[in-house]
């Protein structure tokens, strides 16, 4: 089935993320694959990520640096367009949850309908065939990621985008892989992932992106502010993994398409589910 998709009329896929570097972690292989197949790939971020952890102090300078990194990542993946909706990075409270010191224009506080209309304008302009968002829990629970699910789902309704996929991770192999990596890098903390993302039975798409591991790694490497610093950063640890192990750990990307029959298993984001 997937092979027939690659020879089909080029489609347009829009990948909606909360912050620069989210695309590298969750969907970069899929983006590179679709671009290589001749499809138009557009990445949209809700914020500049100006409250992320980095050597630069949080604020405008960090936001500008992270957007520049996003463009570098997009180029490595073959993206045709980058859009920043310009909302404020909501940040993350210590221990998780919504930060009390978030900016006045924080994405988590944005009116869902208004934000959805702005994203829908991009979807309509692009004639998007596919939109990716996050699962309802926002993956690991970041407030901006939860908002991506709400805003993206509504935007697809407004624009009439036919396929919406929730980018996620299969929790079981994720934990197994991270525990393997921890044998080489014991400082890696896997506890935050024990209740994150989606259980295996909900996942409808398992996309093999091993052939695009180099592009995915280049996408991660583009986000230098998020890979370096005084503290050991998860992204930095990921980039130290040997290439063969990297292909194994990051060679599959997972999505959930709601409304499909239980047990649906697809291998390509543009693959049509079986009828009946």
TrEMBL record:
The keyword tRNA-binding does not apply. Keywords: Zinc. InterPro entries: GlcNAc_PI_deacetylase-related (IPR003737), LmbE-like_dom_sf (IPR024078). GO terms for molecular function: hydrolase activity, acting on carbon-nitrogen (but not peptide) bonds, in linear amides. One of its GO terms (biological process) is glycoside metabolic process. The keyword Zinc applies. This is LmbE family N-acetylglucosaminyl deacetylase. It comes from Planomonospora venezuelensis.
């Amino acid at each position: 089935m997937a092979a027939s998709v690659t020879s089909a009329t080029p489609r347009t896929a829009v990948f909606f993320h909360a912050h620069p570097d989210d695309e590298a972690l969750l969907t970069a292989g899929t983006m590179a694959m679709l671009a290589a197949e001749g499809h138009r790939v557009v990445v949209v971020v809700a914020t500049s990520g100006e409250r992320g952890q980095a050597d630069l102090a949080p604020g405008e300078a960090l936001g500008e640096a992270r957007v520049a990194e996003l463009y570098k990542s997009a180029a490595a993946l073959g993206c045709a367009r980058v859009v920043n909706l310009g909302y404020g990075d909501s940040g993350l409270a210590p221990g998780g949850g919504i930060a009390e010191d978030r900016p006045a224009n924080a994405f988590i506080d944005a009116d869902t309908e208004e934000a959805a209309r702005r994203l829908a304008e991009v979807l309509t302009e692009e004639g998007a065939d596919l939109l990716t968002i996050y699962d309802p829990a926002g993956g690991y629970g970041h407030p901006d990621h939860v908002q991506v699910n709400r805003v993206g789902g509504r935007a697809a309704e407004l624009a009439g985008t036919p396929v919406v996929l929730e980018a996620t991770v299969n929790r079981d192999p994720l934990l197994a892989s991270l525990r393997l990596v921890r044998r080489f890098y014991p400082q890696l903390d896997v506890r935050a992932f024990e209740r994150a993302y989606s259980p295996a039975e909900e996942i409808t798409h398992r996309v093999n992106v091993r052939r695009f591991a180099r592009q995915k790694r280049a996408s991660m490497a583009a986000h230098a502010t998020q890979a370096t610093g005084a503290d050991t950063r998860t992204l930095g640890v990921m980039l130290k993994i040997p290439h063969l192990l990297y292909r194994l750990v990051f060679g599959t990307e997972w999505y959930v398409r709601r409304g499909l029959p239980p047990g649906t298993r697809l291998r390509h984001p543009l693959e049509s589910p079986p009828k009946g």
